[in-house]
Amino acid sequence: MLHFQLNPIIVKEVRTRMRGMRPYLILTGFLVLLALTGLGIYQLMLQQARFGGAVLSAQVGQALFRGLSFVELLLIIMLAPALTSATISSEREQLTYDMLMATPLRPGQLLWGKLLAALSYLFLLIFASLPVFSIVLVFGGVEPRALVKTVVLLLVTTVAFGAIGLFCSSLFRRTARATTVAYLLVVLLIGVPLLIGAVWGQFSNPPGQSPPPMLYYLNPLSALFAVTTIEPGVIEGGFDPGMMPFIAFDFSTGGLPFLHLLSSGVIFYGPAGVVVIPIYRATLIGYSLMTVLLCWISAHLVLPHRRWHLRWTDLGFALLLIGLGAVAYFTHAWWYLVPPPLVMGPAG
Amino acid sequence: MTPAIETISLSRRYGRMIALDQLNLRVERGSIYGFIGPNGAGKTTTLRLLAGLLEPSSGEIRLSGQRLVPGSGQRLVGYMPDFFGVYDDLRVWEYLDFFARCYGIPSDRRSRTVDELLSLVDLSSKRTAYVQTLSRGMQQRLCLAHALVHNPPVLLLDEPASGLDPRARVELRELLRTLREMDKTVVLSSHILSELAEICTEIGIIESGKMVISGPVDEVRRQLQGGAQLRIRVLHSVEQAEIVLRGLVGTASETLPHLRNVRLAPTEERTLIIELDEADETLQTRLLHYLIGQGLAISEFRAQAENLEELFLRLTAGE
Residue ranges of the ABC transporter domain (chain B) (predicted)? Predict the structure, then answer.
């Protein structure tokens, strides 16, 4: 008789994940940090108003939304690899790996069970942060579309960075090494494009050119910057005052410190005005491809022997990758956007 | 009858190193097979191959007559590794429940299976305790229970008694006897021979990846000894007894056994160890009669069984 059974790894991980103080401490710390960020941004806005700046309620809402989103993204970037980089290597370190491999449990089940269990905790953090986010509604100024895009980007980033940790955990026998390499990859994805972008103008010909958006396709911070920047309404011959965004190109960071560093590769100044390149589209596609690829390789790395022999699961992964590749190919006009010719330097 | 386990010219290489060389092993159903060898002899490699965790470089494995292909043997064998891990943050029943789920045991049978196994390994009272709070011996029994969760006909136990105190070893021995009564075929490895001598029905001695000798314990002992030893204790004047016995060494007699050597027992007083060419009880009786006739006051006269440890050391000496 056929009977449905939950993945044993998920059952075990869910049973143990919330045991002890640690998960609750992380959750509390996460929410406290978010709340403090919200408070800090609100104080910053108040300060701007006190010093004569015209700060509207919607602007406060937008700044809060943006600030909280960035903090949440940063926390996810820090937590996701940490939570997944121990998944497989800890089984090897705990000497339970052989016992698992001696059971009929398939490596695929082990992988997706571990990934889902680790990510479910992160999803819990995202879900638990919604009440903090709801304070934005008090001030207004955020489109529901931007909210949906942000949540989708956060979820996709969570899975992709979780997959990086999972891949490292499958590759290395030691958790310490897996975690170190996972964070190196994270730095590579985030820090290196920002670094190249910072010096791009000095080496470009002619000098002062903006770096291409392509450089930031896999950088989640740039993608979130693109999502949370509202493009100014444009009419023939200039800006439409009626569609003027609350966060304008000269206030593109909503008064938040450091965020202007992320405008590179996202905000361009064309002849028709400010253009925000929606690089998050490429990020979503890139992360989906990266996640499938890393999970595919990991599914081979966890095998005790015959690691690189072809299996039926390879067909599934290959079809998924081909499908995503086809989507990327046929929608390239949607995500591959070329910035307008430069007319002036970036803000900030 | 089809053997429970059979390997045919089984070899395993790690790069250039040969860990297992043309191993031919046959383990009958219902037996407790002890795999003996020094560290690095190839015991763990053999057990990992049988558990399907390693792929042979050449040769084949048959479990209950069926050729083992990767991924096919998990339900036929229960495997307990030498260095086993336990999930510290799980309770005892959750630990077994987890492995029961891994083996796809349906929910209506799972709880009963867990209870039965806990009862078998005498851990029912620790059902809700965290695994990390168990003693080493209890963890060992729990790990053994995990290998039984799917009721496999064959159990592979790698160094099951290592690190256990004497009491825990006795408990493990009792448990293995129970498993034999349950008609399980058990293959266990050890580098401590005394651990296996009492519980195994068959043994195999492996060294440098090659099987040196294999078969029922008594047969192996007989083959290795190649003769017999007698232990004689006299009431007094062991010197006189030694003179009488030395006089028989090397002499050809049809009525008395052929003595190869006579030596004093190193740890016991008034005791002599005599090495004979063969273990013939009639000749031994005549020897006793002859010694009494020589006026020796013999208080003890019995066959001295060389223990497995001595045999193994003798067998592998100089290699």
Answer: 5-233
